[in-house]
């Protein structure tokens, strides 16, 4: 019975390490999607003079999952509800963050950007978009470094940690 428990502990710790490695690998991809979506948003608002609702709808069609759902939800909520844009943005950001492997810093960058969205003229809006992209670029580089440093090691550490705990319990 002890051996079965020890094997279950080892397997569980190994899969926890694998999940951590998966999140480290996913984080740069999602940050890159955010940067691309903000570039599309800038083009839609500055050059096409699209409304926020139309811009979000167009982004949802052009960008990949999981971010397309975020922009689709914002577009449909802006169309169907008479709530403030920032409130919709904040609620969707909270809901989105439960599904992706991003840190609180990225969440705060996106929330702060949402506060400025639709509040200023085109020139100021472009500056805020560029500021958010700059912040995300810094986080993107940081996430790539973390993935390179800890990504491959984390599954091995999970396995070793599981073996260590199993040996302590035996």
Quick one: overall form?
elongated
Overall pLDDT metric? 88
Q: Sheet bearing the most strands, described?
A: none
Query: Please, what is the oligomeric state?
Result: single chain
Q: Roughly how many Å is the radius of gyration?
A: 20 Å
Q: How many domains comprise the coordinates?
A: 1
| Measured distance between first and last alpha carbons | 11 Å
Uncertain stretches of 5 or more adjacent residues? none
Helix-and-strand structural type: mainly alpha
What is the number of helical segments per DSSP (H or I, 4+ residues)? 6
Q: Considering DSSP H and I runs of 4 or more, what fraction of the residues is helical?
A: over 70%
* SSE string: HHHHHH
Strand content: under 5%
Q: How many beta-strand segments?
A: 0
Pfam family, one: Spore_III_AB
Keywords: Membrane, Transmembrane, Transmembrane helix
Protein name: Stage III sporulation protein SpoIIIAB
Transmembrane segments: 150-169
Describe the protein's architecture and organization.
Keywords: Membrane, Transmembrane, Transmembrane helix. It comes from Gracilibacillus xinjiangensis. InterPro entries: Spore_III_AB. This is Stage III sporulation protein SpoIIIAB. The chain crosses the membrane at residues 150-169. This protein has 6 helices and no strands. It has one domain (2-169). The protein is an all-alpha fold and 170 residues long. Helix 1 (2-47) runs antiparallel to helix 6 and helix 2 (52-62) runs antiparallel to helix 3 (67-80).
């Amino acid at each position: 019975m002890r051996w079965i428990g020890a094997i279950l502990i080892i397997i569980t710790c190994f899969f926890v390490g694998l999940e951590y490695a998966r999140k480290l690998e996913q984080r740069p991809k999602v940050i890159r999607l955010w940067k691309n979506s903000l570039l599309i948003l800038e083009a839609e608002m500055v050059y096409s003079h699209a409304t926020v609702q139309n811009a979000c709808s167009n982004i949802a069609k052009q960008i990949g999952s999981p971010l397309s759902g975020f922009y689709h939800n914002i577009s449909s909520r802006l169309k169907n509800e008479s709530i403030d844009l920032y409130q919709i943005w904040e609620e969707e950001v909270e809901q989105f963050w439960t599904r992706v492997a991003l840190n609180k810093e990225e969440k705060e960058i996106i929330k702060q950007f949402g506060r400025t969205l639709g509040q200023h003229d085109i020139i100021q809006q472009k500056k805020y978009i560029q500021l958010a992209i700059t912040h995300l670029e810094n986080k993107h580089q940081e996430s790539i470094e973390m993935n390179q440093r800890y990504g491959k090691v984390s599954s091995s550490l999970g396995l070793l940690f599981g073996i260590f705990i199993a040996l302590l319990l035996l």
